[in-house]
């Protein structure tokens, strides 16, 4: 564990120090995010922070290769190197998009190419457990494993890209997801289902460090955005961790066939960890397709935009997304590690209730304020209607007002008299 802490800190430190340099370069070469209708930032902001994150990832991998206890992850597997190479390719693709604005088809082609390189170098789904109809564990050959891995990678890359809409959101959610994956992978090594010095644990440790190192520069108000170079890099690394941690282990070795929970969790953990990006992507695709638009056409109806529309502030919306990402990802990992004890279920249930209350609190507060304002307006109207002057003007017990006749001939009033109105 200490070695992983060193690797995480190395990645975080290099990313933190490299980000200001990347920011200056982004301003110099005009790699800027201009203000658009769907954006929440109000001034042009540099992007391309994924370059600094990739430098942090590379530094973390380099440090790990020099630590004796982690060298085994390089000796028995090429997955870490595969992720480093493919990550460099997809980060370069993101830089080109950040600078020149590539079309959707070009980006999709580049994402498939980077995922294909990762697969060729050793990251591939080998097993898939389906706990339905007594199917059990499927051994996936290259004909199924390769396209499934590429599809999962492209899906995750675009999911992370979709949630990158608020300052610090993608970096924070990615750090939480990476730490959850690390806890799951490290636990598999501790209980003997994998080596503690494993590729998924190392990949998620360096990714978490890079995200945490970038976050101080990216949290609201952001001084630089990670851009597509960062979101696509994070998506590729998270998909690689999911494939490495769950797709190359026979799930039926993790528990008894009589207990369904340990068998299904290796399949559910990746989706729980990445639930927030996945659900946002699915909702966006369905929403745009029903309107007859392209799934890649932008709008302001993502989950984080909805939180802003409810009434949450920018930072509060980001923190709420952090909360839900942590609850779902670490809740799934806790269930996997403990087997779903009553205490864990109660804690998760209580936190779910807290999360719902926090999300809906601005709407409830606004409804209460609106109800109170309506009540005060009605009270004022009743008071105005009950006032004697109002009754006189509108007719009532005092009778209607009597019009005053104008004098027949104008002229000065007699001495000692004053003008008046007889009611």
From TrEMBL:
CDD domains: GT_WecA_like. Its EC number is 2.7.8.-. One of its GO terms (biological process) is lipopolysaccharide biosynthetic process. It is an enzyme of class 2 (transferase). Its cofactor is Mg(2+). One of its GO terms (cellular component) is plasma membrane. It is found in: Cell membrane. Residues 381-423 are annotated as: Disordered. The chain crosses the membrane at residues 76-96, 108-132, 144-162, 169-187, 199-217, 229-247, 267-286, 317-338, 344-362. Keywords: Cell membrane, Magnesium, Membrane, Metal-binding, Transferase, Transmembrane, Transmembrane helix. Residues 399-423 have a biased composition (Low complexity). It is a multi-pass membrane protein. Mg(2+) binds at residues 161, 228. The keyword Iron does not apply. GO terms for molecular function: metal ion binding; phosphotransferase activity, for other substituted phosphate groups. This is Undecaprenyl-phosphate alpha-N-acetylglucosaminyl 1-phosphate transferase. The lineage of its organism: Bacteria, Bacillati, Actinomycetota, Actinomycetes, Geodermatophilales.
């Amino acid at each position: 564990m200490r070695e992983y802490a060193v690797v995480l800190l190395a990645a975080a430190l290099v990313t933190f120090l490299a980000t200001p340099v990347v920011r200056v370069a982004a301003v110099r070469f005009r790699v800027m995010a201009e203000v658009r209708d769907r954006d929440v930032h109000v001034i042009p902001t540099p992007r391309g922070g994924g370059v600094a994150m990739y430098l942090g990832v590379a530094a973390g991998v380099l440090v790990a290769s020099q630590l004796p206890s982690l060298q085994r992850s390089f000796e028995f597997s090429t997955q870490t190197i595969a992720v480093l190479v493919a990550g460099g390719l997809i980060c370069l693709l993101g830089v080109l998009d950040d600078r020149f604005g590539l079309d959707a088809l070009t980006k999709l082609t580049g994402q498939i190419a980077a995922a294909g390189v990762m697969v060729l170098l050793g990251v591939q789904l080998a097993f898939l457990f389906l706990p339905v109809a007594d199917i059990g564990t499927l051994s996936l050959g290259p004909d199924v494993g390769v396209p499934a891995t590429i599809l999962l990678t492209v899906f995750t890359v675009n999911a992370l890209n979709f949630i990158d809409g608020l300052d610090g959101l993608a970096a924070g959610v990615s750090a939480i997801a990476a730490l959850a994956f690390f806890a799951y992978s490290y636990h598999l090594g501790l209980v003997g289902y994998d080596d503690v010095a494993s590729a998924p644990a190392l990949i998620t440790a360096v990714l978490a460090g890079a995200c945490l190192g970038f976050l101080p520069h990216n949290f609201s108000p952001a001084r630089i955005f990670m851009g597509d170079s960062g979101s696509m890099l994070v998506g590729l690394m998270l998909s690689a961790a999911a494939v490495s941690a769950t797709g190359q282990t026979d799930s039926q070795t993790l528990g008894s066939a009589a207990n369904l929970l340990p068998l299904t969790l290796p399949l559910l953990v990746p989706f729980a960890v990445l639930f927030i990006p996945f659900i946002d992507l699915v909702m966006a695709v369905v929403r745009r397709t029903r309107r007859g638009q392209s799934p890649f056409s932008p709008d302001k109806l993502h989950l984080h935009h909805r939180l802003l529309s409810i009434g949450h502030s920018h930072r509060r919306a980001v923190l709420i997304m952090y909360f839900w990402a942590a609850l779902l990802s670490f809740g799934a990992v806790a269930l996997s590690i403990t087997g779903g004890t009553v205490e864990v279920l109660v804690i998760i249930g209580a936190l779910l209730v807290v999360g719902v209350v926090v999300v809906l609190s601005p709407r409830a507060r606004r409804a209460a304020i609106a109800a109170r304002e309506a009540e005060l307006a009605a009270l004022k109207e009743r008071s105005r209607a009950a006032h004697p002057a109002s009754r006189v003007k509108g007719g009532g017990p005092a009778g209607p007002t009597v019009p005053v006749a104008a004098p027949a001939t104008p002229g000065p009033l007699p001495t000692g008299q004053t003008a008046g109105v007889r009611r």
